[in-house]
Write a structure and sequence with these properties.
Elements: E1 21-22, H1 30-38, E2 44-48, H2 55-66, E3 70-74, H3 82-96, H4 113-127, E4 132-137, H5 148-158, E5 163-169, H6 178-182, E6 186-189, H7 191-194, H8 198-205, H9 215-225, H10 229-236, H11 251-265, H12 268-277, H13 285-292, H14 297-306, E7 311-314, E8 321-323, H15 325-338, H16 341-357, H17 361-371, H18 374-390, H19 394-402, H20 406-411, H21 413-423, H22 428-445, H23 448-454
Parallel strand pairs: 2-5, 2-6, 3-4, 4-5
Antiparallel strand pairs: 1-7, 7-8
Helix pairs in contact: 4-5, 8-9, 10-11, 16-17, 17-18, 18-19, 18-21, 19-21, 21-22, 22-23
């Protein structure tokens, strides 16, 4: 039977991966809006710049300013498995469009990804009719060898008139998109264009409620950070923003310096909240409260998002929040230095359990693997293996199984069984060997159900 992505009638039920971020009061960068308008005849636009240059804010504010229907997709490492990408993109399309569900990339289609992708993208843009934008955020999180690079090139050749793809990434387009660039189907907006001009820096400074800076005060700040939006935001959050630090040579050093300055000026309760909740890549207030044993996460997270404190909120009925990548990296590093090892490990285990309960199983698996908590990771794999295989996401499941020490994996008949199931569509000989080992383990354990399934 052909499998389809689950139907969602309520947009608030969409996963965080496909939810557009909520924007606090921002300064609209009309200069860049006009540039994106001028590239409207290009099927693809690549917005490439280091972290903190305002790529996500630019993309979200442009879509909002132009009032265009948008499929927002936030990429992560799990999208190295193309079945995961197609699964969640189908959910996004179900929220935004009307019509039959899009197919899942189940094993029978995985022998010819290009053919499946062509059929899928044609069906997608019949379901979500142009004019529309497909926005792929955080593209840099994909591994170099991800099949999605080639599939994106296929999509750019198939986009109908009025449909556009915007990509936000810290890196340059992969080699698979070289032909699209050569033939003008993919345009680039690079870091230099995203640097703040003085009027833009003044506009951002004007959003600060506590004080007003003159153009003469803003100019040296913007020059100090060389138009880097995150650096300017950090300067503006200081009680005396004109007292700039000595020049620093790299973005990472600038961020570390100012993040420490801002962090050290927060009260201890907020510091603890930030350090603990940074373990959650995405969170609802309820998840944050559960991890911190508190009940004030809603007010704290809303305040952080409204004050541009490197915190994003999506637009769903139950808002979900996430910290800017650079800010989260800083918090994770500081958390490792601040808490005792036993306390940090306990919080990481709790975070993994909270993430799994919230359906963020990829993030939960990553935490379990980093902890070396193979027993808990094995239980997670066994719980989620059947639906993942039904969704065609066997590569993701197999990547988790490959992360186990071989001694641990080979002792568990169920882990061997699910590894064999993953191998079956692409390598039946290897699958037979793995399933035979699972069979022997089941027989030794007296597990009749597993025995028959392996047989």
């Amino acid at each position: 039977m052909k499998q389809h992505a689950p139907t969602l009638s309520d947009p608030s039920a969409a996963p965080a991966k496909v939810s557009r971020p909520w924007l606090p009061a921002i300064f609209p960068r009309e200069r860049l809006f006009a540039r994106l308008d001028n590239l409207a005849d290009r099927p693809g636009i690549w917005i490439g710049a280091p972290g903190g240059y305002g790529k996500t804010t630019l993309a979200a504010s442009y879509v909002e300013a132009r009032g265009m229907p948008c499929l927002w997709y936030q990429l992560d490492e799990d999208d190295a498995d193309p079945a995961t990408f197609f699964y969640y993109l189908g959910i996004a399309a179900d929220v935004r469009g009307a019509g039959p569900p899009l197919p899942l990339l189940t094993p029978e289609y995985q022998g010819d990804l290009s053919a499946f992708a062509r059929r899928y993208f044609r069906a997608l843009f019949q379901r979500v009719a142009p004019p529309c934008i497909l926005l792929l955020d955080n593209y840099h999180r994909l591994p170099v060898a991800a099949p999605l690079h080639a599939l994106l090139a296929e999509m750019l050749d198939l986009l109908p008139a009025g449909a556009r793809c915007l990509v936000a990434s810290r890196g340059e387009p992969p080699p698979e998109l070289a032909r699209a660039r050569l033939h003008g189907r993919l345009a680039l907006v690079e870091a230099e264009a995203l640097r703040l001009t003085l009027p833009e820096a003044e506009g951002i400074a004007g959003l600060q409620a506590e004080y007003r800076l003159t153009a003469n005060e803003v100019r040296p700040l913007n020059e100090r950070v060389r138009g880097w939006a995150a650096g300017l935001t950090l300067l503006l959050q200081r009680s005396r923003p004109t007292l700039a630090p000595p020049p620093l040579t790299t973005t990472a050093l600038v961020f570390d310096y100012f993040a420490a300055e801002v962090f050290d000026r927060a009260d201890s309760a907020l510091q603890t909240f930030l350090l603990k909740t940074a373990l959650l890549p995405k969170m609802t207030p309820a998840m944050a409260d559960q991890l911190t044993d508190g009940d004030g996460a809603t007010a704290l997270l809303n305040g952080l998002a409204r004050s541009h404190f490197f915190t994003f909120r999506d637009e769903t009925a139950e808002p979900r929040y996430q910290y800017h990548d650079l800010f989260r990296d800083f918090l994770l590093s500081r958390g490792g230095e601040t808490f005792r090892a036993t306390e940090r490990e306990r919080d990481r285990r709790r975070a993994a359990a909270i993430l799994e309960a919230a359906g963020e199983i990829g993030a939960a698996a990553e935490l379990r693997q980093a902890l070396g908590d193979w027993e808990a990771l094995g239980e997670l794999v066994i719980r989620h293996a059947p639906p993942l295989l039904q969704q065609g996401r066997g590569r993701l499941l197999e990547s988790w199984l490959a992360g186990f020490p071989s001694a641990v994996r080979n002792e568990s008949p169920w882990l061997l069984f699910w590894l064999g199931q993953c191998q079956l569509p692409r390598d039946p000989v290897a699958a037979r060997t793995t399933l035979a080992r699972a069979y022997r383990r089941f027989k030794h354990a007296g597990d009749v159900t597993g025995l028959w399934l392996a047989w």
